[in-house]
Specification:
The chain is built from 8 helices and 8 strands. It folds into 2 domains: 44 residues, no CATH class; 135 residues, Response regulator (Rossmann fold). Helix 2 crosses helix 3 and helix 4 packs across helix 5. The radius of gyration is 18 Å and the shape is globular. The protein starts with 10 loop residues before the first strand and ends with a helix. The strands form 2 sheets. Strands 5-4-6-7-8 form a 5-stranded parallel sheet, sandwiched between helices. It has a 3-stranded parallel sheet with strand order 1-2-3, with helices on one face. By secondary structure, it is of the alpha/beta class. It is 43% helix and 16% strand. Keywords: Glycoprotein, Membrane, Receptor, Transmembrane, Transmembrane helix. It is found in: Membrane. InterPro entries: ANF_lig-bd_rcpt, GPCR_3, Ionotropic_Glu_rcpt, Peripla_BP_I.
């Protein structure tokens, strides 16, 4: 606040959607633009946060893509597995809206606490194993927690025939940055994932040239 009230022209960042929410409230009050390269939470919109500028795509796009896949294969119902924070809740809310547009739905929302442990994940996955829906969407902000989910799922024999696992772009972003070891690769066999994509345009060519 001390710097923002004096000479700050704009804020670049933060990387986390959760922190971006907090920063955007302050930026609104002080009328300081906030430029984020990574915050994808769909609730960070220009109507509520007029000084927030997003240079990446909102989660609405990937949730729309997941809903299209679910509808194409006529699965109709999915289970949403997410971390119980602003990013997780708002992303899953967007997924529910996009599924509803295609007469599909989230049959169960399984929320894991921030800082989740193997024990937390095991308890939730055991519960999910007893449910009818076998299509599970994993939406987390922390890739460590996400990889723990798949490791536990592999141990419980849930990454197998009869299950469909869909990971949002946290997984593709992580794998682009950190090559997976053999153990991680085995636990991710068959997992579908979304990836950020910027369509070709004159503006994109000008930016990259």
């Amino acid at each position: 606040l001390q710097f923002m009230e004096k000479d700050t022209v704009a804020i670049i960042g933060p990387q986390s959607s959760t922190i971006a929410h907090v920063m955007s409230h302050v930026a609104n009050e002080l009328q300081v633009p906030t430029l984020s390269f990574a915050a994808t939470d769909p609730s960070l919109n220009s109507l509520q946060y007029p000084f927030f500028v997003r240079t990446t795509q909102s989660d609405l796009y990937q949730m729309s893509a997941i809903a299209a896949v679910v509808d194409y294969y006529r699965w109709k119902e999915v289970v949403a597995l997410y971390i119980d924070d602003d990013y997780g809740r708002n992303g899953i809310s967007a997924l529910g809206d996009k599924l509803q547009e295609r007469t599909c739905k989230i049959s169960f929302k399984a929320a894991l606490p921030p800082g989740t442990t193997n024990s937390d994940i095991t308890d939730v996955l055991v519960k999910l194993a007893l449910m009818e829906s076998r299509v599970i969407v994993v939406h987390v902000s922390d890739p460590v927690a996400g990889l723990m989910i798949f490791s536990v799922a592999k141990h419980l024999d849930m990454v197998a025939d009869g299950y469909v696992w869909i990971a949002t772009d946290w997984l593709s972003s992580y794998l682009d940055t950190y090559p997976a070891n053999s153990e991680t690769t085995i636990s991710l066999q068959g997992v579908l994932m979304t990836r950020q994509h910027v369509p070709d345009s004159d503006q994109k060519k000008a930016f990259t040239s």
